Amino acid sequence: MNILETVKKGVQDAIKNLYQGEIAADAVVLNPTRKEFEGDYTLVVFPYTKMAKKAPPVLAEEVGVYLKENVSEIEDYNVVKGFLNLSFSDGFWKEFLFQNSGNPSFGKGTANGKKVMVEFSSPNTNKPLHLGHIRNILLGWSSAKILEAAGNEVVKVQIINDRGIAICKSMLAWQKFGNAETPESSGTKGDHLVGKYYVEFEKQFKKEYANWQQSEEGIEHFMSHKKREQTEEEYFKKYKQQYFNENSVLGKEAKEMLLKWEAGEEETVNLWKKMNGWVYEGFDTTYKKLGVEFDKLYYESNTYLLGKEMIDKGLNNKVFFKKEDGSVWIDLTDAKMDEKIVLRSDGTSVYITQDLGTANLRYQDFGVEKMVYVVADEQNYHFKVLFETLKRLGEPYAQNMHHLSYGMVDLPTGKMKSREGTVVDADDLVAEVIEEARTNAVERGEIVEISQEERDTIYRKIGLAALKFFIIKVNPKKRMIFDPKESVDLQGQTGPYVQNAFVRIQSVLRKAQLDSVDLSLAGGYEKIETQEKELLNQLFTYPSIIQQAADELDPSAIANYCYNLAKGYHKFYHDHSILKAESEAAKSFRLQLSKMVANVLESGLDLLGIEMPERM
Questions:
Q1: What pLDDT score was predicted for residue 1?
Q2: pTM, whole model, 2 decimals?
């Protein structure tokens, strides 16, 4: 039984013995005491005033006296209105430190027998990974690591969107304008090369569209279709997609290419395989840079026909219904959603058809109890429909589906548009933050004595920490702006700031020659200082922070915890001597405290996919 369970049992006994009331120990709520008040944990007594027939301050005082007399770990208490602030004894805190300071796995839960799937990244093969993908990848990877740390078995997957009209646009543009250019001949990373031709298609299409607007056919079309007082610019902006589908030469060629692919025409399929192969190699390089890997890859070209059997089953069970044109729908109006098509009138799939089939396939592959989809908030409605549909189909995993919805990422300069080539490429962004880290380090001149190879490793770790931490520290639901320069600030709420606390501790431990220090002397440390107790309290909450982050699928909880722990340690280091402490007992205690802080910072940042440098 840990101390919080002990205190909860003590509160249960207090209510029973003092007021003859019955409460469940696990229903007692204890929260860390707010910094402006004295104490370690706070009990809110308002829920018990009715059974005790006492005013909240009186009730809190009486329960405080009982706990101090009957729970040995409670040293003192104070009452602020209806809040009972409890202070744990120095003996408890010392025992906690001595038991855990050498445990690098502190905070992580034991295996709970549950299996969770996390789907993330899931890019298209018509363009390279960009800043928006990076937020997706980092949220997915850190969520998987956190779920694993909470005791789950985790399967990491992605579905690669490798088919469709967008992919055919890249293929057609390369075929028409590429002059047989390859990654090898051009020295260009494969996904960048394919993305270049996706942008080229849009450029050529815009030119074609502009020419058509000025042609006799375009002018006649505008005059016969425009609404009253509608300008050419207004009309043609709205008509653009319809023009692609009905009038465009390039649009016709792209659609014909898609039909050839679907028919298995050899030349088209071979081109598709070749260009997708370039992209996969490029993706793998980027994933490696980010330290990310997957347990299984799914491809839309293999899964887009899945789900039709589930539609047939749902029709038989009256989950779906057919309209007069033969299309199949589900009526979700009773769940405050609309009617949703699940199969077109010609029998072809829509996205949700594929997603139904893919979910079922993954359950067959892994038997997972929970599925987490990391997808931007633009798809909130789609996932509500998907999850509700799976529930109505009676799928065994349907009650445990979760959409980790996140806001888009902007730059200080504004939004990004992939078709126009204004997207911030993931590889360029990684290179930029590493270069920012290098520039900052050179300006400080603190690691000049080591080899260039070692320096480059440090720059990489700091740069990636800057990128990852800056993105993950924001609650996933919030839209955010990523600023590369701000991300590497050693004085801000950044990854390098947290890394610096770890590096500072490693320096202290090296100078102390920790292996030669008699750590048992710490038992004689008589009075734990306020800042030391604050650090211990922060360390004590680490297991619950991991569990909270896993339950809420919110990696920002870990990032902000690590920042606050680092901030607390920097302040402690500034205010208290370690190597020249007032006694050998104090020195031994503070070295163990420092070591545990370092272990937890390293563990916490590892959950975010961030490595620690030994120097900075």
A1: 55
A2: 0.91
